[in-house]
Amino acid sequence: MSDLWKLTYSQIKKGLNAGEFTPSELATSLISRIEAEDFKIKAFLSFEKENVLKAAAESTERRRSGKPLSEFDGIPIGIKDNICIEGTITSCASKILENYHSPFHATAIEKLLAKGFVLIPRANMDEFAMGSSTENSAYQITKNPFDTARIPGGSSGGSAAAVAASFVPVALGSDTGGSVRQPASLCGIYGLKPSYGTVSRYGLVAYASSLDQIGPLSKDIDGVVDVYSIISGKDPKDATSKNLTAFDPAKAKPVALEGLRIGKMKMSAEIDPDVAKAYESLLSDLESKGAKLVELDFSLLSNSIPIYYIIATAECSSNLSRFDGIRFGARKDPSGKLEDLYVASRSEGFGKEVQRRILLGTFSLSAGYYDAYYGRAQKARVLIKREYEGYFSKVDLILQPTSPTTAFKVGEKTSDPIQMYKADILTTSVNLAGVPAMSLPIGTDSKGLPIGLQVTAPLFHEEKIFGFAKTIQDWSSKVKLPEQIQ
Amino acid sequence: MNLNEESLQKIAELSRLKIDPKDIQAFLSDFNKVLNYVDTITELDVSSVSDEDLYTNEGNSVRADQVAEGLSRSQIESFAPSFQNGYFVVPKVIET
Questions:
Q1: ipTM of the complex
Q2: Closest residue to B71, CB basis, from A103, A359, A421
Q3: Closest residue by Cα to residue A55 from A3, A113, A9, A122
Q4: pTM, 2 dp
Q5: Residues of B numbered 7-26 whose beta carbons fall under 8 angstroms of chain A's beta carbons: which are they?
Q6: pLDDT digits 0-9 by tens, A440-464
Q7: Which residues of chain A lie closer than 8 angstroms to B93, CB-CB?
Q8: A121: which of A93, A165, A221, A301 is 20 to 30 A away, CA to CA?
């Protein structure tokens, strides 16, 4: 039973319910794996082993007495460090929140606990979810389990690496411009950015409120479907949560490829040749099975990164103004004057990338530049939404590579913010439009690094994504997660 | 467009941030790279979008006006940087 960590989400769920192993045995196996390998990966910021074992023992007892909370009771789930868990530090990988113990649970956490999931916090991330490589954490750089000289993607890099390294079968991340999908792609796993408003943001520390969504990452499609079903649904505590019931997993049925209308993109020089090859090969296979390919013009979407950065940083400058050293977080008080306390607490507490984004947001919201930048970006966002509505009048799903490249090397892009921002070139428009999209693995490049496919569906039609992913599971199963971490 | 050092310092002041003098040139260079990149938005034709298109028709989301349990004093004390007798402690704000 010592190698239970190797199991996929589906195998774990089945094994627990068949009584083949207990939640405690499973947790012990995963903890051994984390203790043996995480010093190379650094997926977790802190690891409270005793709490995990205690929760697993409680689950074991519930199952032993025939009273499990649900069929999910005892399944371990990794949690990104920007999702609040009562009594646990939620630092957003930032020094400004290094000692912040959350006094409440995020709604997504409450829902998972009600089903008996065993929480495994705190997965590393880019500070305040700002980054595409998990190199912006104030504490440590997370490495890609396929090659530890490379990044896992970001900002949910800790969650993605934890799943890919088989530390947990499933994890929660958050996606503002691609922060679940891009790391899922670079780590060879599944990762969903749900439709905006379907998952409560209550208890998710806000970066850009109109774009952020909590999303699951998993070794297999069933993990994404199950966790999304549990955490979705209307929450009165979140005014932006839509009046929808939780997703019904029974809707996630394989789809027929015959007659399926698929929107595809023309490959550009920015897409790595190996990524383009895997994408084209999948499309031609789908076409041979009866799918109808429609080439879409994505020229407007190629402007999505500038639009995204103006809107996201404007919201970040507003959201992060609450971190002032007065009510929570770290305080620095160099002179005993209030103004100096604010400035010192923020300047020492926030890292460089966070400061850069706050400054850009303050600039685009300032008098004199508001109309040219923020006002214009909001209008451009409407154009992006219309563009997607136009696409979905012609096709059922849009397929694109998730990331233009496979995992790049640690340090390769840190000196050039634009190169780093371009890592999200294919994902940001999805957040601007609010539509759902998922990354799923479809192959590897010549170095053995994973390639992800981004599947985008119309608003509130996650079932189309899940159905398609189930239909092409054979493609995804070609990508084997690493057992030995180099 | 490009921002000069003085304008960047003004924005930093509005953001309640202080950029270390030894980092200012590197920060300015990075900031201007980003600004020039997002500047492409000024060339986008957004004339088909009116101000009204920016608003939704979803209406307000409201909760019942009911008294509910809030955070306890001890919970607040657990995360406050400085807390005494039920109050957050701040530097003196009134000049005498």
A1: 0.94
A2: A103
A3: A113
A4: 0.97
A5: 8, 11-12, 14-19
A6: 999 999 999 999 999 999 999 999 9
A7: 338
A8: A221
